[in-house]
TrEMBL record:
InterPro entries in alphabetical order: PdxA, PdxA_fam
Catalytic activity field: 4-(phosphooxy)-L-threonine + NAD(+) = 3-amino-2-oxopropyl phosphate + CO2 + NADH
Listed name of the protein: 4-hydroxythreonine-4-phosphate dehydrogenase
Localization of this protein: Cytoplasm
Subunit-level organization: Homodimer.
Organism: Pararhodobacter marinus
């Protein structure tokens, strides 16, 4: 079987740390073949780069393969330029087109700043995930955060904690479980994935004494999947789900809200977490950090998460094949 096609790596916000991370990873030796989509003017001085006509075109070791995409303006690290917003969006669109056309095996996105894109180009999406779902024909997607020791999937994401009980419906939880289960099989090579589902309330509601969501729909939904043959446990008290012995009993944890999922993974592996969009017809990963304007251009950005995102995308592509 042939190896997967190269990764399509977007530049992200050119005023952030995306360009310097790509340059450093290429110089040190990337974990997978890659082609960077962006404007070479935004790369750090001294970067070894070479324009390629096709993502699979070979370049010398230590050289960044560049699929050039001219932007409207140069970039000043730490200072987003509205004129460059359209270019940032176009880089994402080109990466998706390359994967959909079979020239690349996965999309790896460098961080963007949603406000900068809205101000500069009227970007109408809350973030990368929603835009990628749109480009995929309005696919039903969920967000996974993953590292070697833990995978977590929040059912609700960027909403106020007070809004979670109203947004967390049986249908939403069911879709989250089903998308996660299918992705673990297709993208991570697990023939019988094991899921653990957290409760919403302290002590998973403690029999209704601390909330009824577990009794009213979370436990019945889990029982339905278990009766259908899925290996799924819960609802479990979230405060006992994430120590080492507990993590060994499942392949992914379904959590009810943002911090319930992200606090444990950032505690377990703060630098190496990867954001994975599940449910897309193509593979997409990204580092679990933002544009880091405060350190952009200083050469001190940690490439660990970006490198892990590339490695995970490559492994997922191999699993799909």
């Amino acid at each position: 079987m042939a190896a997967p096609a190269p990764l399509a790596v977007t530049c992200g916000d050119p005023a952030g740390i995306g360009p310097e991370l790509a340059a450093r990873i290429a110089a040190d030796g990337p974990p997978a073949p890659m082609a960077w989509i962006g404007d070479p003017r935004h790369l750090p001085g001294g970067t070894r780069w070479q324009v390629v006509d096709h993502p699979a075109q070979a370049v010398p070791e230590g050289t960044l393969a560049v699929l050039p995409l001219p932007f409207a303006a140069t970039a000043q690290p730490g200072q987003p330029t509205p004129e460059n917003a359209a270019g940032t969006i176009a880089a994402i669109e080109r990466a998706v087109a390359l994967v959909q056309g079979g020239d690349c095996s996965a999309v790896v996105t460098a961080p963007i700043n949603k406000k900068a894109l809205k101000d500069g180009a009227g970007f109408a999406f809350p973030g990368h995930t929603e835009f990628l779902a749109h480009l995929a024909g309005d696919a039903d997607v969920v967000m996974m955060l993953a590292c070697p020791e833990l995978r977590v999937v929040p059912a609700t994401i960027h909403i106020a904690l007070a809004d979670v009980p109203g947004v967390l419906t049986p249908d939403l939880l069911a879709r989250t479980i089903e998308i996660t289960h299918a992705a673990l099989k297709r993208d991570f090579g697990l023939t019988e994935p094991r899921l653990a589902v957290a409760g919403l309330n302290p002590h998973a509601g403690e029999g209704g004494a601390m909330g009824r969501e577990e009794l009213d729909f979370i436990a019945p939904l889990i029982a339905r999947y278990r009766d259908a043959g899925m290996r799924i446990a819960g609802p479990l008290p979230a405060d006992t789900m994430f120590h080492a012995a507990a993590r060994a009993r499942y392949d992914a944890a379904i959590c009810m809200y943002h911090d319930q999922a992200l606090i444990p993974i950032k505690t377990v592996d703060f630098a190496g977490g990867v954001n994975v969009t599940l449910g897309l017809p193509f593979i997409r990963t990204s580092p679990d950090h933002g544009t880091a304007y405060d350190i952009a251009g200083q050469g001190v950005a940690d490439p660990t998460s970006m490198r892990a995102a590339m490695a995970m995308a490559w492994e997922m592509a191999a699993s799909r094949r």
